[in-house]
């Protein structure tokens, strides 16, 4: 327990000395992605081999230096999920990709004992090998601020966070700044909420601060429900203390004594590490009553969500914490006036809170040195889809879509052509090749009819059917509608039914106009932001790919051949040798003919499974 500021500083000094005593560090990625591909088995194997060889292995950072050792740690997500499991070797900064348990012996022998990199485990691109992580194009093109510690420290250790300067911003907020100065600094920084809407964080804090209520709350929205998004999860898993530190500073600024982290139950690793981080902070006196003798008290609690997408909406989230069904309510009053337990509440997401310690510690000018005037700082994106490098990235606000897709993401997979990006998940819109030079910031995207949302970027190539994409997102939204308001509950159901008809080849004249009419009605009358934006993927795909809708409806034809119910197969009689292999492979006996004569497909019976295409040795079966 540290009872005052001096004791905390002494603890930080000892932790830094202990960290410096580790002559080498092996950081095994223990993010969700790498764990699923076996990284924990790699960690166990490395530990077993090093202990068997008598190497001094340190798996924890102790307060007192205990001689030179090799630090073996489980880190948070490195972000390069495509290449996992990942192992980083410090101080050289070498990154090994696609590591297997069978590689551990060589890592210990050649790298830890011999001090040499293993070329075959390095990332390679177009014949060029990159041993150091910072040299890999995927990382070199990024600016990692919020994610700077993810993959570089033991994600489960408060001592490592202290060793690299953690909780210095909290110290400053407690002992060197007034609440007014903190709020003013956040306002001047121009930090906007990273959860989707981009509302100015400092303005929100000042609105809560000026409320006269006896009880106020700080709530962190970790309910990341967008398909393909995992930015907040990676921060909670990889650097939980930074987010908690941001919440504590918000508590000081706004006069709150309690905070809640609302995190989805589908993130068990994040929940576990947050719980451990809170317990560690309480143990050394950074959470609880009279923190460091400052007179400020703050307590943190965790609430696990049950997986309802609507609980990412502010009023639904607070209702869920209170034990009620997570459904949005009519506003005003806003959350800053009547939020959790009817008290003034600061509600920000994980990435927003993780930015706060950086601003307090490094200053407004530093924060504003990146990004446009009205959207300063950086933004983390989850990059997924038909792209070479999928994973978690962080770039300055205002970086163009082209740089994200082709520089950081490495371009389209398999040499395909770029077609579109769905940005912002089911509440977002669609950007096309014509938008590649669009800066990714709040205002530019809003002007283009899209939104950053939580930061999901789903990249699609020219083999993607945009009508099917719209159907997929509408199906998600319709399933996740809480059902409280009729426009969302009934309107999205009608839109989904129309889209399902269109991709099944049963579209009717007037369907496009009806979709747009319903979209307009829902966006103007739905109760909450989720309903109001539910139709955006449909509207943007109609606007930019109307020809694909018309082909499905008028010609019963999918231009990219992706819609299975619109597929059709024919046998070219000029190529068919009458071998009957296609007929023997057909599961529904839809192919008829005589040996040594051209066969034919009965389209009434055909289920369009494509088995005949694979069976024909003469490439006589064609998809039309």
TrEMBL record:
Alphabetized Pfam families for the sequence: Complex1_51K (PF01512), Fer4_10 (PF13237), NADH_4Fe-4S (PF10589), SLBB (PF10531)
Q: Which UniProt keywords apply?
A: 4Fe-4S, Iron, Iron-sulfur, Metal-binding
Q: Where is the signal peptide?
A: none
Q: What CDD domains does the entry give?
A: TRX_Fd_family (cd02980)
Tell me the ranges covered by the 4Fe-4S ferredoxin-type domain, including all copies.
Answer: 567-596, 597-624
Q: Which SMART domains match?
A: NADH_4Fe-4S
**What molecular functions are annotated in GO for this chain?**
4 iron, 4 sulfur cluster binding; FMN binding; metal ion binding; NADH dehydrogenase (ubiquinone) activity
Q: Does the keyword Metal-binding apply?
A: yes
Q: Which InterPro entries match?
A: 4Fe4S_Fe-S-bd, 4Fe4S_Fe_S_CS, NADH-UbQ_OxRdtase_51kDa_CS, Nuo51_FMN-bd, Nuo51_FMN-bd_sf, Nuop51_4Fe4S-bd, Nuop51_4Fe4S-bd_sf, Soluble_ligand-bd
Top-level lineage group: Bacteria
Report the family membership: Belongs to the complex I 51 kDa subunit family.
State the protein's name.
NADH dehydrogenase
Name the species this protein comes from: Synergistes jonesii
User: Which lineage ranks, top first, belong to the organism behind this chain?
Assistant: Bacteria, Thermotogati, Synergistota, Synergistia, Synergistales
């Amino acid at each position: 327990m540290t009872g005052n500021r001096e004791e905390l500083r002494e603890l930080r000094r000892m932790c830094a000395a202990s960290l410096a005593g580790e002559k080498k560090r092996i950081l095994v990625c223990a993010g969700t992605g790498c764990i699923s591909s076996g990284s924990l088995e790699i960690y166990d194997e490395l530990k077993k081999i090093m202990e068997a060889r008598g190497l001094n292995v340190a798996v924890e950072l102790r307060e007192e230096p205990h001689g030179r050792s090799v630090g073996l740690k489980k880190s948070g997500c490195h972000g390069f999920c495509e290449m996992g499991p990942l192992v980083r070797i410090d101080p050289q900064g070498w990154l090994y990709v696609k590591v297997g348990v069978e590689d551990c012996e060589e890592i210990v022998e050649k790298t830890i004992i011999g001090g040499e990199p293993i070329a075959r485990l390095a990332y390679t691109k177009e014949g060029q090998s990159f041993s150091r992580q910072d040299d890999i194009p995927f990382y070199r093109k990024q600016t990692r601020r919020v994610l700077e510690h993810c993959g570089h420290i033991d994600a489960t250790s408060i001592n490592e966070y202290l060793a690299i300067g953690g909780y210095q911003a909290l110290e400053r907020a407690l002992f060197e700044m007034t609440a007014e100065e903190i709020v003013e600094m956040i306002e001047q920084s121009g930090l906007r909420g990273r959860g989707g809407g981009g509302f100015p964080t400092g303005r929100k804090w000042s609105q809560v601060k000026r409320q006269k209520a006896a009880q106020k709350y700080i709530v962190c929205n970790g309910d990341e429900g967008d398909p393909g998004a995992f930015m907040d999860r990676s921060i909670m898993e990889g650097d939980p203390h930074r987010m908690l530190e941001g919440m504590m500073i918000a508590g000081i600024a706004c006069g709150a004594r309690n905070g809640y982290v609302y995190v989805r139950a589908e993130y068990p690793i994040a929940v576990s590490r947050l719980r451990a981080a809170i317990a560690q902070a309480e143990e050394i006196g950074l959470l609880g009553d009279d923190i460091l003798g400052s007179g400020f008290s703050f307590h943190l609690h965790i609430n696990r969500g049950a997986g309802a997408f609507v609980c990412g909406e502010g009023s639904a989230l607070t209702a869920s914490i209170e034990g009620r069904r997570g459904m949005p309510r009519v506003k005003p009053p806003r959350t800053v006036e009547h939020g959790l337990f009817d008290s003034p509440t600061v509600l920000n997401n994980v990435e927003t809170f993780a930015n706060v310690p950086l601003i307090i510690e490094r200053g407004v000018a530093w924060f504003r040195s990146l990004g446009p005037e009205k959207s300063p700082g950086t933004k983390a994106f989850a990059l997924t889809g038909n792209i070479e490098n999928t994973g978690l990235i962080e770039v300055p606000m205002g970086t163009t879509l082209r740089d994200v897709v082709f520089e950081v993401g490495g371009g389209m997979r398999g040499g395909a052509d770029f077609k579109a990006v769905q940005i912002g998940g089911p509440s977002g819109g669609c950007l096309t090749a014509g938008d590649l030079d669009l800066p990714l910031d709040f205002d530019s995207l809003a002007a283009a009819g899209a939104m950053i949302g939580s930061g999901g970027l789903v990249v699609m190539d020219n083999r993607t059917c945009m009508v099917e994409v719209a159907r997929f997102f509408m199906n998600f939204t319709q399933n996740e509608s809480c059902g409280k308001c009729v426009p969302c509950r009934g309107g999205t159901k009608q839109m989904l039914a129309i889209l399902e008809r269109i991709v099944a080849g049963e579209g009717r004249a007037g369907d496009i106009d009806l979709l747009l009419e319903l979209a307009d009605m829902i966006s103007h009358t739905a109760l909450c932001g989720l309903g109001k934006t539910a139709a955006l993927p449909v509207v943007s795909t109609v606007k930019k790919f109307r020809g694909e809708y018309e082909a499905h409806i008028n010609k019963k034809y999918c231009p990219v051949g992706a819609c299975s119910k619109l597929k059709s197969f024919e046998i070219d009689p000029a190529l068919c040798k009458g071998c009957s292999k296609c007929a023997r492979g057909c599961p529904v006996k839809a192919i008829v003919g005589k040996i040594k004569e051209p066969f034919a497909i009965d389209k009434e019976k055909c289920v369009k499974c494509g088995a005949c295409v694979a069976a024909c040795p003469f490439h006589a079966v064609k998809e039309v």
